[in-house]
Design a protein that fits this description.
The chain is an all-alpha fold.
Length: 95
């Protein structure tokens, strides 16, 4: 019978510790959501989303992405050209 009581006491202690840990975690989460910095970031994100939907900004973003893609394509072409020239130089040096 003493063994059952020890098991019960151990289970109650573990349940109490788990409850305390959960309570502390919830307290931490509430604190982080209530933080003014997080609220500010949320508001800034909402405003940025609204601004990005406007036609002039969207057009500017599309042009920027297109220019970036063009630069990437040109850089890859230059890379392949340099790689081919380096291969030719190595081949000629091995003769």
């Amino acid at each position: 019978m003493g063994h059952k009581n020890e098991s019960l006491i151990k289970a109650e202690r573990e349940a109490y510790e788990a409850k305390a840990k959960l309570k502390e975690e919830l307290k931490y989460q509430r604190g982080s959501f209530g933080n003014k910095q997080h609220l500010g970031l949320f508001v800034a994100g909402a405003i940025a989303g609204a601004v990005m939907k406007s036609a002039p900004v969207r057009g500017l973003l599309v042009k920027s992405v297109a220019a970036g893609m063009k630069l990437e394509k040109e850089a890859l072409q230059q890379f392949h050209t340099i790689k081919e020239e380096a291969s030719d130089i190595v081949f000629d040096a091995q003769k």
